[in-house]
Amino acid sequence: MKIVSIAILGKKNNPLYVYVSNEENKRKFEYIIHTSLDFFEEKVPLISPLSKKSTQNQNDMYLGHLFPTEDYKVYGYLTNTNYKLVCIIDDSEIKEQEMKTLLNNLHTILVDTICNPFYITDEPITSKTFHLKILDLIGKK
Amino acid sequence: MEIYPKELREHPKPLIGIIGNNDIEEVFQHTEFHKLNFLHLKEIDELPLPKRKNILPSDNYHLPGLIKAKWLKKHRDYIPSVLINFFSANDLYNNEKRITDEITKIKRKTKTKSRMYKFVIVFIQEINNTLTNETKEEKLNQIKKRIEIDSKQGNLFLFSLKESSLSSQKLFTIISDLSERFYREEGRRVKKNYSDIYSKKTQHDLFTRGNFKCGFYSEARGDYKNALKYFNRSYKNLLEIPKKGFGLLELRMIGFVLCFKMISLQLSLKNIGEAIFIFKQYTNNFKSYIQRSRKGELENLIISWYQYKLFAEMLEKIPKTSLSKKTNYWESIGFYYHAAANYSLERKKSSKLLIQKYQKELSNCNLDSFDKNNHIIEFFFNIKNSIFLCQIIWRVRNKEENKIELKSPFKLNTSNTDFSSDYESENDNNNLESNSNRIININNDNNNKKNDNNKKNNNDKVNNNENDDDNDDDSNAEDNNKNNPNSNLVLIKENGKKKKKKRQTVSLRRRSDKSSKIYNSTQDLFCFLYSEQQFNHSKEIIDLFTRAYKCYSQESISSERLIHSISTRIAIAYFEQNEFQFAKLLFTLISKHFRKQKWWKELLKILIYSLECGNQLDDYNYFTNCALELCIPKIGLPLESRIVIQDKLFKMISESKEKNYFKPPIKFPMTKDFPLYDLIDCTIQFTESTVYFNTPIIFKFSLISHLPKAISLDQIQILFNLPEYDRVIMKSPINIPNKEKGNQNKEELQSKEYIITKSPFYFPDLLLHPNKLTVFTFQCIASSAKKIVAKAVRVICGNEESGLCFEWLKFPKSINYPIYLKTFPSRPTSQVLQLPANITIDIESPQPAFINEYFPILIKLNSNQDHIKNGNFLIYFKNHEKGEIYHQNTKDLLSKKKNKIFFKEIHPYNTINQVLFIKSPITGSFELLIYVIYEHKLGYSQISKTEYNIKFSKPFLKQYVYHSLSKDLSKDETTVLLDKQFFFLNLGLISKTPIPININQIDLILFDNIGKIFSKSFNPKGGVQKLRSNNNDNKFNKHNVNENGNEIENGNGNEIEIEIENENANENENNDEIDDEDNDDDNHKKSISIKQGERCEVFFLINPYKVFNPDDNKFKNSKILPNEKEKNVYQTSKKVSIGDIKIQMIRTNPIKFYNYYTEYWKKKKFAFELTLKTSPVEFVRRKVTMDINYPSNGVVGHQITCTYYLHNHSDRLQKIWLKVEQSEFFLYSGFNYSELVLLPRAIRKLIYIFIPKKCGKLPFPKIQFFLKESSQLLKESRKNYHIFVSPSKK
């Protein structure tokens, strides 16, 4: 599994943090991340406790595979506070559990950052510590 | 999709060979024959035969190429499964030997060692043939036995033209059976050969080929499931092939062919899910290789683009009913178009880089002979693929035209290029592209290469024998018969002559031959790049994205942002194609979405494109808007770039001003949709939360610019919710301090003081530095009690003269901007003001009030002291649910909500009179609460609260009017004779109330020129009453006019007023009234009361004397002047209304008149006023009238002169008969009968002299006048004429 991009989107769907492994394809990934919001919106009713179609565990914030592109796979994670975590990997086979763990860890890092009193809610995350933690998470440190 | 090779695109059909030219239409009339393909062979010798096999089974043997390119075409177009030959049925008997020889030859020819062709010999039986079918069948069986024809190999068939349809059907069955058998046998043979000879574990390339062939044979015989099985096996074998042995591109292309074969079969079987799975599998299998290699990127991109596009088109062709309703992303056709478009984008980028890199070499390359219209993918299939498939398809095509002429594009001038290492191969083992080492070597004019090639060809001979001649390697007939495979010289049949020419051969090279590899790779690259250069990438990208857009829009998956993303790509493609108008349109639409979503980075890119669009289109407004938005810090453009953009913007404006593109200054009112608020930020703060009336309001206005460079501030205007503050007069100087530390202009700014008289405030010499706060202090006088809110701020930067002027209009409230502070808290409801003046209220109204009539109320406000102007006086009504209140002047209904009337000021010692009308549809008490309130910004004051009670009642008096023509007239009389006849008009009044009604005055107002009222009488209780007229001349019983017949007019024209006396109960009172009758001022006291249930009647005696002449001038001035329509009615009918009766009750307590509304109250001196219209009366005018004049007394024996007047009113001559009756009292002389003639409009006077014979009251002798034409008796106005005759004096 090769993580090519990680993004954190705010409550109002605005980007808070975008990491792209290959800067050349940054625009392409940004489009993919933006498009992924469609699939978040599509999947949210399915995990709602009121939904009859709900098949997932209601406490499970991992949305799984959102959609494929020609070269990549996009995975999503929706926090209870409506933050959206997007992970784009290359089109290789991966284990679901592996991705789930990764996004859970990403969520933990995000919570730590948001708890920082100097962070302004819904503003882009510029913390270097956060960035280093992300790099550590995806094994690029 | 058309560019996809036909042999790959379509399912193969069994090929049937027809020998000779005996193509008979009737034979192939059966409809099923379209499932077959036909090949015409002149002779049986043209049948292509397999080469001699020279199989060397070896575990180390590998194919030079996986699948031969021409193999598919060969089996589709050249190798028939069944051969058909036609003979006449007559030959069975006539020429039996020849037939057996021919069949034997065919049998021998078709039965080769490696391939068993099938054949059918068709005997055509003519219609007129006399032999029976049974006889011929016997003959055919005999021949079969004699020649030993196996039914598995061939068959003899008797085709009867008589029963052609049936025969055709039978023949098709035979042919299709044999064809199926042929392909099955071929498949088995191939399968057996491969499994017997080669190893499945190691020789995957051979099994790939073998299974592909088996799949093809199965597909040809229509067994799609079996075909799928073989193609799948072939594909699996392909994946097992070691990547070092074959080029990745070759593997990928073969995989592509196999994959799309399987997909087309699955789609034919309507297994869409399976088809998608195969496609996914294929793309996944090769993706990793491509990503790993990162070489030959452009080729991969092109193939990826093509395969996605092709698959999308294949899916699109499926009927929509076959697709499942709810699609996921993989089942969306749009996804494949989208992916194809993305690859197309990448391809464009990659090819651009390569073309730039080899621009010089490409310009030196002669590519004239290359087909410029050739599509790039065709190039791949025809040229590039051919390298790996060991064959050249184009050669096969050219052969169809009996030419072997290679249109080679390879005329390379530079042979020492070393770029192939970048493009094609490196010495990297992982680089799979480097293994593409089977190369076409074409012996062209390049002499330098010839020798080298010859050597290499010799080396290849062995390989050709070994490798090409595997178990079914065929060559065409021409190659078999005329060419030596080991020679590079080819004999070409051209114009019937054999010529020896140098053959342009196709040969395979060893992998180790690097020079050839480079050479051919270079050629390929140039052709490839040339094609790419010619290709319109933008058009393709737009097309694909547009298709994806349409598909996503139609499909059920959520794709709002996806569509925006696609729209962005389309817009960029338009931009790159220099179609800026479209690009601008799309960018404008998309930017809204990203702005709303706060995706600044995406917006930034769009804005940069938009800026350029505006520049290219000379759209200065658009350019300016984009440039300004780019200057906003949060968009994310670096400061340097923002400075550049601002400079560019100012430069553009100054240039455009010089060019007179637009008139300065440019003002940009920034609307809500165009959020440039962040460029200039402003706040307003009021220093105090509450100020008092007439005290100064101080507020501070701060401004900060986020533009990258300083701009000059020109104007500021602050717009409040109350427009009077927008242009408020400033009384105090304004300090403009700059809080920025270290600012050089600090002292200078602080020292300046601006005295501003009105808004907008001009600051011609003030610079707004970036990110530096500038604070202004303003002051104005509170002149309103309402809360003040700064609603908008207009900031104009720049100088209007120079043309650099930007205007920001901000709407802080609508965007929750912090410019919001009220000056006053909400008004305390308990606060009561002490008014500076004493204001009193007085309310007056008449009585009684009747339902459905306007009832007036006068409200007066009196101020006895100061001029009160700084507030509102409010008259407020309550509890008027039962009725409606109308405004005095407009008669507008004051609804329950709008139940207030405002006055702005009351002048000292003056009165405000407000009249309202109240109307009630029902009877009852109407309670009106009237509040008069003085409202001020600091509070309010209730001046008065008045409860006013009005009782609405029904009208109390019932009236009826009728007329009787005369008391003495017979009932038959229905008309009134003008001039000569009186009639009565009766008015009846009945009281309905218990309260006695005092009627003061009853008037009959006749219309002009109708007649004269002589008397009227009043009769309560229906009894006879004495009635007197005001005018002595019109007293009752004075029924005569004066002697001359002149009218007696009273002082009021036709109107008379009467005084009424009651003879009944109130005699004393009446007496008093009579005594006081001379006192005109006390007229109102002379009223008569009518008690409940009483009835009184008033009689009017009227003598109509006027002729109705509508054209009369007097009549024209009359109130009853008929309009034009009515005129005709008056002329033809004389039935008209004579006037109105007005009943009035004079107000008992006279009201005072006020200056303000005097006119109204003057008219209202009556407490009750009622007007009744009289019923119409028909008036008649006679043609001739008669009148008589005689003395009232006489003496016996003395003459009495009696004069008769005959008056002709008509315009004609009138003849009159006269008859005098005898009388016993008088003597007279003259004719008893006579005839008179009356001239038109003439009066004739007749004088009779009577001598009375007796005394006493004597009747005159009767003299009757008749109209001769109608025998109508002319009546006199009086019926009996008497005279008192006194005795003679002795």
From TrEMBL, chain A:
Pfam families: Sedlin_N. It comes from the Eukaryota. SUPFAM superfamilies: SNARE-like. Transmembrane segments: none annotated. InterPro entries: Longin-like_dom_sf, Sedlin, TRAPPC2L. PANTHER family: TRAFFICKING PROTEIN PARTICLE COMPLEX SUBUNIT 2 (PTHR12403). Belongs to the TRAPP small subunits family. Sedlin subfamily. This is Trafficking protein particle complex subunit 2-like protein. It comes from Anaeramoeba flamelloides.
UniProtKB/TrEMBL annotation, chain B:
Residues 417-514, 1028-1088 are annotated as: Disordered. Residues 249-355, 532-630 form the Trafficking protein particle complex subunit domain. Residues 447-459 have a biased composition (Basic and acidic residues). Keywords: ER-Golgi transport, Golgi apparatus, Transport. Involved in endoplasmic reticulum to Golgi apparatus trafficking at a very early stage. Belongs to the TRAPPC11 family. This is Trafficking protein particle complex subunit 11. It comes from Anaeramoeba flamelloides.
